[in-house]
Every structure is written in C-alpha cells, then in structure tokens.
Fold these 4 entries.
Entry 1:
Amino acid sequence: MKKMRAWNFSAGQWFGVHVRMHAFYVLLLAVAVGSAVSMGARAGRGVLLWLVMLSAVAVREIARTLVSLWEGLELKGVLLLPTGAVLSYGTSEAGERASATGVQWKLALAGPAANVLLGLVLGGLMLALAPTMRLWEHPWITPLRLLRSAVWVNLLLGAVNLLPAAPLDGGRLLRGTLARSKGVMQGARMAASVGHMLAFGLVAFGYFESNVWMAALGVVVMFGPQLEQDSLLLDSDVDAVTMRDVMLRNFATISASETLEGALESAVHSMQDVFPVVRGGNMVGAVSRQGIVKALEASGDGYVQGVMTRTLSTAKPEDSLVTTLRRMMGATGVQMVPVVEGERVVGIITPQNLAHSMRMLNQRRRLRRG
C-alpha cells in the first residue's frame, strides 16, 4: 500500500471528498513544458497548457460528481488520472449502486457530455468573437494557441472517453456489460484485452504521426486498469481485510468418485456455483455447476474426477484479501480460491460470494461503531 501511495499525492479535501492526483500528471506537465520549449516558447506556456488539460478533467469530474449526488451516492475519494478520475464511495452499498446498469450509464455519459458541450460553447464563442482564428489548423493542441487548445482538449477528452478501454468511460461500460454476461473475472479479463489492443493502437498512431499527446494517451490506457485497481484499494479499507473475514464457511463439497448426475443433484440443492472436490478428506480439485451441465450435455453421465479442475491456487485464513484478489485477476479461469489450514479446507472465496461478504462485513462494522 505504501508503494501505491507513492504514486499518488494529495490535492486536498473538497466538500468532504479526499482528492488525490496520480503521478502521471507530473509526467504530463513535463511533456507540456518540453513541448513549449521545443517550439521556442516560454516554459510558462507549457504550464498553462497543462492547466487547460487539468481544467478539462475537472469539468468532467464535476459533472460526474453531480450525477453521483443526484443518485444519492456518498463519495469518499477521487483519484485524478489524465483521462478522468476513479471514484471511490463511502459505503459498499453506494459502490454496488454505482455499478448498476442505469447509474453506470449516467456516470459514463455525464463526463463526455460536459466536455463536448464546453468545447462546442468555447469554439462557438471564439468563431463569433474572432472569425479569423483558425480553429481547425493543426496542431489542435499546442502551447502556442491556448484558447484553441482549450476547445480541442475538451472535445477530444469527451470523444476519447467513449473508447471501450478502461479506465475510460466506454471501457467501464464494456467491463460492466461483460461482467453481467460472462462473469466478473472473465469479463474483466476480456475488457482488459480490448483495452490493451486499443492502447497499442494509440501508441503506434502517436509514434508514426509524431503526435506526443496521442502516444501519452495510449500509455495511460495501457496502464489504466492497474491504476484504477490500485486506486480503489488505496481509497478503501479492503487492505485490512483477511480471507478469514470474508470466506464462505458453510459450503458443500463433492466427492471425486461421484457421478455427474449425482453431482448435479447436489448442485440443485445448493446456492454454490463452484464446489471443492475431495477424495478421502483431501481436496483434489474443483468443479462448477456450469461445468457439470456442459459435461452431461456433451458426453452423458461420467465421474466428477474426469471433468474437475485439478490446478488450484489456495490461500490461508490470515492472507490479505488484496493479495488474493490480485491472484484471481491475474490467473486464467479462476472460479474459486479454497482457504486451507494444513490440508483441510476451512472456507472458499468465489466472485459470487465476495461482494455479499464484503457488504455484510461493512454492515457489521457500522453496527459495532454505532
């Protein structure tokens, strides 16, 4: 956590919301100043261009904050990135509501709409007051033409945030859609793959077109999911949570020698989606409800040991939840993390039960504080 905090610095507390800025802004400032100096202008114009970019981000985040307040979402912290910000909420209920489809769309569209509207208004005023100004002249963003840059920074920031790559708004929508159809972990990995392809495309375009701003945007998108994940962990209490706090203790197991028909019968009478598979009291694998059904449809009845997943990453009760989440996100096909003491399984963590467990944990903490 100290390492993550080193890449962020506080920008104060505004209306009860703790605002932090990512170190990418320092890099962006250096690029802006370097661009001004290379064009023969004073370094101060590069600083002013950087402030124009920061103002555009502030406009979109004010719009998103207003939507959050309108929806009754209690904001706890904001981490500013060059393309926008990652919001963290004061309660797990607020975070869960923010991930609802309707609210997610409102939050995703509010920022781009605010930037595009401001860009159009500024552009219209400039053309009306100074008809001779070459609004369409390249480069659109330059420290030599700050007013024109303000127009294009807002227009491009609004348009770019609709791309399907996290932490852009379009990427968050894609990730939410995939999570609902493919599951949380698989959806996150698929969305990350799309984001990486777009990021490489932006970097390549910036390189071949000698457009430093497009290349910088590609770098932000490339590292965006990690920046977003780190900021959410930084602005919450999840780093203090262990596996013992949230693991599912009452769970069913299935014998490796059980038939698929028998396993499906057990699954019908359980709320679990994934089951530890045991042999002689020792866990030897895992099988999912969906895996059982697919095997029955494809080959008919058989034995669980023939379709179970044999490679499992386990955790101990005292392990940090943060560490385990990173392992779940980085691995392929992880559906469950067994929590073991010695060779005995004492709990399990699945993507399905984790959100419920965190919500209950937060409610218990509030009741104890009250």
Note: Residues 2-236 form one domain.
Entry 2:
Amino acid sequence: MEPDTVLREEAARIFEIGAERRAVSLSGHEIVVAGGEAEAERIPLEAIAGLVAYRPGPSWAAPALAALTERGAGIVLCGPNHDSHCLAWPVPNRRWPARIRAQLDLYPPYARHLLRQLERARDAQRILALETMGAGRRMQALKAAPRPLRGRRTVKRTRAETAADIARHYWPWLVGRGFRRDPARPGANAVVNSGHTRLRIAATRAVHAAGLHPGAGLRGAAGRAGLADDLMIPFRPVVELTAAVFVATGSDKADARVEAAFARLLTAPLRGRRGPVQIQLALHELAHSLAHCFETGAPGLDVHLPARQDPDALYAQMSDARDQESEAVELDT
C-alpha cells in the first residue's frame, strides 16, 4: 500500500437516536433501543461506531454503556441545533498508562509546534475547499497581502492577524455572502453542526484506539473537547465543504438525508496524492502519529489528507441519500 493511500472497508456506522422517551439496553451482543413497551430497533455491537442522541436524551442501562465502552464507541449528546454539547468517553482498563503520562507531561512549546502543523494542514485544505467553491484566489491573496500601518507604507502580517482575517472571510466565501457561523442559529449552521458532530465521533474513536487521554489537548484548557477537537482540525474543511455543497443545492436543513451523507463521507474514498483516502482511517493514523510524537519527541506528524476536493463525489453522496430516502418511503407505504 502506498504511504498516502488510506482505504479500508468499515462495517461500523454512526447511529442516531432522535426520538424522545427511548431506552437503551443490552441484550446479548445487541443494543436494544425501545420506545415505551415496544422495541424500536436492535443493533449488533459490532455495527456501532458511535451514537448520537438529542436532548431530552434516552435513558441508558449500565450494561449497555459498559458494552459500548468496551467496543470503543463514542456517545455524543446534541442540543436542538445538532451541535454537540456532551461527549461520553470510553476508557477501558487495557490502555497504556505510559503513553498517557507522556501526553500529560508534554512540553508546551512542543505541543504548540504540533498544533501549528495541524493548523497549516487545515489552511491548505481550506484553500482547496474555497477553490472548489470558486473563491480560492481570494484566500491566497488575503494571506499574501501586507498590512497597512499609519506612518509607514506596509508591514508584514503576523500569524495571528492572518488567521483572524481568514476566519472572518472564510465562511462567507465558502457558504455564501450572507452566512455567519453561529452554532446556535438554525438552517445552514445546523448542517455544519451535524457534520462536525459526526467528525467528532470519528475523532473520539481514533483517540481512544491510540490509547491517549481525551482531556489533554494540544492547546490546554482552550480546547472544547480536548484532543478529539485537535484531531479534527485538518479534516474540518472537508466536512464544511460538504455542508456548503448541501446549502448551495437547497439542502439547508439537517434532515435525515444530510446526516446520512455526512456519515458516509467519513468512509468515502476521497482523492489523495497517491490513492484514495478515507477520513475515518486517516484520523486513526493521525492519532497514532500523535502518540508516537508524544513518546519520542519526533518533529513531524503524519497527516493523510485529500489532495483535491471532489465535488462530484459529494453530489453522488447526496444522490445516494435521496435514493435511500425514496426506498424508505416505499417500504413505509
């Protein structure tokens, strides 16, 4: 396999519990989701990569939580706008304490060095995403533009100023001129929240599989979900581009079709430099690369990212979601 080829079949999926008054229990090797006195669904443990529940959430049986913990499946509780509010972290006893000690004792300048690598990879992916939406040159021109200063001609922008300018213009250029990123707003913001939530579940599984501590992120206490959020940094633009494509084609609500497409995006074969790349497996490789850096002090991270965004693949995912939705309607009728 080529170094940049990250591709494998994955049977586990992300499941959503959207209805109220559900009860989650364990029966043998299956998770049972019941509503009232009737069973709503039975899911084999091997098929669960993560669970998304909404407030007011379901009631959980302790054996079910223990089985999901042993499986390494993340549980994310979301608010009414599909924004994740709580992350249940699975930590079985077999993880490596020495690796976690190395992570907790990480030298702060070295942690910032690793974080800058992730942010540089994110900026490169943002340029690719904006190029797909026809605004790539704007971002490159913004990064190269000098900053005017009173009494002088121009001075070079600092890294913080450049990042602030990019963050201010990125969302309107990607989604639309009138768009403002606010997780509490409905509509297109809910679509972005839905994509980020599913990416956070995949990052949670990757951090867990690498035997790292979820609460010790690279940016200290500023991180929202610790290391999982740090791991998401380079992959966010791919999810955000998918959300922008949905909004551009009229899908500005986080319905079941959009959520299914985001779940498939994590295992979709995207174009890499030397072959297809899956986000889900690339997250696992990045987590193990971080663990190697924590233990050895290696200077560089191994980040596998799409070399070119593929809007045709995103439209194909939307078409598959529409087909699945029509099939479900036919079965119901």
Note: The two ends are 46 Å apart (CA to CA).
Entry 3:
Amino acid sequence: MINIRTRLTYQFILSVSVILIFFSVGVYYFSRLYLDKRFYKRLQDRAVTTTTLLFDMQAPDTTVVRVIDVQKNEILLDEAISIYNANSRKIIFSTKTSDSKFHRSFIPYLDPKQQVVFRRSGEHQFLAIHLRHRGQNNWVMVSGVDTNGNEGLKDLRKILIVMALSGILLLAIAGWLFADGALSPMARIVAQVNAIFPGNIKNRVKHPNQKDEIGVLVSTFNRMLDRVEQAFLTQKMFIANVSHELKNPLTKIYTQIEIALMKRRDPEEYEGNLDSLKSDTKTLIQLTNTLLQLAQTVVSSESLKFIPIRMDEMLWEVRSQVQKWNEKYTVKLHFEDFPEDENTLIIEGNEASVKVALMNVVENACKFATDQTAVVQFLTVPGKIQIRVFNKGPKIPLEDLPYIFQPFYRSKATADARKGHGVGLAIVSHIMEVHKGGIKAESDDVGTTFLLEFPLKIKEPEKKDEKMKS
C-alpha cells in the first residue's frame, strides 16, 4: 500500500503538472496565433502593393515584379503572388508561372461573399483579397512560408518542453518536502501515542495548535484516552472490590468450618454454626447474582429482545414481588393523572431487564428507608414515562451523587447503615442507557428520590379496511 506521504506527493505533482502543461500549451497556441496573424499581415501588404501597382497605377507586369522584389526586406520562402479573374476564370498575373498551379488549388475556396480568405496547406500560408475593378471580379492571391515564425515556434516548443520537465522534477522534490512537512505533526503524534502505556495512561497527546484539523484530531484522541483511563480505573476498582467482597464471606465460611471441625460440639452449637454459614452463603449468592446481572446487561445488551411493555402493570408486578420477598417492606404506588390513552403507558424494552431495574431501585429504597417504605409515583409527560421512587432516610452527600451509579461505590452515609455491595444502581444505570432512558437522584434532609425516565412507544392507529364485504 502507498503511504500518505507518497500519495500526497503524487497528487501534488499531478495537479501542478496539469496546470503547468496547460499553461505551456496556452503559451505555444497563442504564440502561434500571433505569428500567423503577423505573417498574414505581411502577405496582405504584398497583396495591397500588387493591387496598387497593377490596377491603380497600371504599371507593366515586369515593373510590378521588380518592385515586389525590392520590397522583400524579409525573405519569405516560396513566396508567390497571383491575380485570378473570376469572370474569365483565368489567372491574369503571376510572379512565378510555376506557382500558378499551386494557387489554382485554392480557387474552390474563394467565396465572393468574403473580402479576405485565409487558408493553410502544410507549411504554406495563403491569403486572397477580393477586388472589383471596372466590372471585373479579381482575387489577389499571395502565399509563402513563414520560415522565421516556424523556427521561432520550434525553439519555443523546445524551451517549453525543457521547462515543463524541469518544473515537474522540481515539483516532485517540493511535493515530497511539502508532504513531509505536512505529515511531521502526525509522526510526532504517533510517537507520543506509542509512548503511552497503562503505567502512564494519564499522559496526553500534545499539539501546539488546537484549532487546526490535527488539533481537533488530537483533542478527540485525548477525550478517548480520558474514557480509556476511566475504564482502567473502573476495572481496577471493580477487581479490587470484587476481591474484597468475595474474600470476606469465603474467609468467614472457611474459618467457621475449620473451628467446627476442631472438636466435637453440642447440636445447638452446630446449629449456630450452620445458621452463620447460611447467612454468609446467602451474602455470597446475592453478590454472585448481582455480578451475573451486571455482566449480562453489559455483554448481551445488543442481543436483548425488545417488546412492548405496559409500565403500570409492570409496577404492580414489582410491588407484589418486592413485598413477597421481604414481608417487612412496603411499596406504595401512586398513579396521578392516569391517562385515558393506553398507548401512553407502553414503552419498547426488554421485559426482564426493565423489571430488574425497577426491582433494584424499589428494593434499594425500602432497604435504606427509616420506615422500610418506598413511595412510587407514576407520571406521563409528552413522549416519556416518569417513575419517581422516594424513601425517607439518610441524606446522600452532594459530592457522592455523581458516583453512586458506579459499580461497588457506596456512599459513606449509607455504607454503615445497611449491608450491600454497591452493584445494584450500576445495573440500573446500564439498563436505562440500553433503553435510551435516564436515571438521576436527588437527596435532602427529608429523603432521597430516584427519577427514572423511559421513552414512550406510541402505537400507530390501525387502518380500517374501506372495502365493503359483499
């Protein structure tokens, strides 16, 4: 594959060479036009002199020939002058009898409607002037070869070819240097990128001009590095927290089993050990399930099957299941301004994922509420469904709010109050992102409110069949 530098050089050479060749051809063409015009003017002067001598001054033919010879300050190769009488269709005068046959070949091109006729035959240039004298139609014909002009055009052609080839060579060198200078910032950027490793991922690519195209590319790349750095930090935090969360229950389980096996004990003591093992195992199972849910929503989000979901019915199912799993929890549903149009209650989503998101938020609200009660408010706004989940409980500090949706992050205000792993809200956040919705939290001294927004799935009205059944 051709690299960018070579491709730019080729493009530069091609574009400028086309312009240079076009310019050279233009110079040659217009120079030739100028020389032709100048030579035709000389032929016309010869014709006018001949006309004056023969018709105005009525000089003898021999005198005309001598005068014309004297006027030949500039030698015209193969110069010949003839006068053709259109009435008798004969050549009545010729400076060279041998050339009269050459002039006869131009007679078919003589148009009485034109005053002057120009023709070219090979290197010979021909001019004829129409003259009326005493009722006779005469054509004064002059021909010759512009030796000086042709030699000048040959020299000009050689000069233009040499200059064009030299210019293309210089263009190749200049194009290569131009491409090298244009791509040198890219080479420096590549060197900087290659120097960035996970150990120094905080480093960023530098470019002096942030407003040019390369500067925009560098800014975009730096933003990507910001996301990569955040992903690395999240991964490190995830691994550290998972290791810690898994290590504690596993260590406790192993220690209790080891103590139980050290000596024989009473059945009551064994029952106590089994209850403790059951509690630690339950904690481990809950953590494993939440990690599996998080992994499933992240990995298989693109393959989730979306179907129409009626959200009011979904909330009733969530309420029933939360209260069934924990009899101490209370979920209060409020449907304010319930819409008459059922289409405004339907979203497009994955039923299992939406249920997991609502379950996690409602359970979380009940768990941290002082009265173990979650108040769920259902609202419909143009194009959206809003679900507000409120609970009375400890205030989440303002500085913690931006991080509560990160995996394993737990606010200090709630970490000491209830047990948990800090994964549930991360799962909810990703599910809302997959469903093109959003979630945000507000917290004050009274309590905390989570606002979930789902975009509506508006059904198109069914078209009625206008055909009449027979």
Note: The chain has ten helices and twelve strands.
Entry 4:
Amino acid sequence: MANWLRKLMPQQEKFFPLFNDHAAKVEQAAIRLCTVLESDRHAESGELDRHVAEGRDAATKILDQIRQSFVTPFDRSDIKEMTASMQSLLEDMRSIARTRRHASGVKLAAFSSLILECAGELKAGVALLEDFDKRADDLRRMRDKIGGLRIRMLALREDAMVELLAQGAGDPMATLAASRLLQRVSDLVERFDDVADHIDDLVLDHV
C-alpha cells in the first residue's frame, strides 16, 4: 500500500512548475502592459497578445495535468479556479492595452509601478506553493502586500480622477476615455487582490 502511494505522490510535483510558468507569464505581460501605459507604444500591444496565448497554453497544461493525475496538491476545483483567475489577469491586461489607444492626458507611471509590484508579489507567492505547509505565513504576507497595493491604487485613482476632471472640461469624450482607462487599471489591481485572496484561502484549507 505504501509503495503504491509513493508512486502516486510524485504526480503532485508536476503541478508546481506549471503554476510557476503561468505566474511568470503574468509578470511578463505586466511588464509589457506598463510600457504601453507609460509611453503609449502600441507596438507593445502585440507582445501582450503573445503573452496571453502563452498563458493560455500554460493553463491548458495545468488542466491536462489535473485530468491525468490521481493525486493533486490541492482540490481540483481550487486549482481550476486559481488557473482561470490568473488567465483572466492576462486577458484583462490585453484589454487595457487596447483601451489605452483611445485615452490620453492621464499620467500612469505610478499605476504601472503598482501593477509591477502586484505581478512580482504574485509570482513570488506562487513559487511558495510547493512548500505551502511551511510558507503559510509568507503567503499570508503576500496577500496582505497585494491588499495594501490595492488600497494605494484606489487612492491614486481618486487623485487622478480629480486632476483629469479639472483638465478635461473642454473635451468630455477624452475625459470619458481616460476615466474608463483609470477604472480598468484599478480593476486589474482588484483582480490581483482576488487572486491573492484565493491563494490564501487555498492554503488555509490545506495547512
């Protein structure tokens, strides 16, 4: 019986490199997105399409591994939800880059910094999942850090909206496009926070 279990348990190990690869795609996409936000370089949007496609491939590998494995490190539904939420981050980044084309007059460097921090924290947190029973406190700190970045994003958005409305009284369509972009960027950080919360819940359920 013990030998049979040992043959099954290594199947779990295959998941963690796949999780890490998916998180790396999110960070790479975040770097590209920030280039678009800060400099409005539309050529970078094509790179985001590539990262989204690569992320979809990474997600497919995770789902295939779920189907092939009898033993999984976490509940199958939790793995699926985490994978879907991370892929949604990639899809949202591509959508934001396209929204950027129609918005101007809004400064986004500070927002970009927060997005990069979120992506870096998420990637580092996902890497800890392999030792989640020993790194639960570190994973909780990751959740708290991203939660703090979300609060900072909300304050930044409010300040940016006040400035935007003060400057854009003569061009309501431009103001609308810029405010929509600010909302989408804020929603992206909210989604990072949701993913961090889900990872924390996943760990709590298994520690």
Note: Residues 1-10 have pLDDT under 50 and may be disordered.
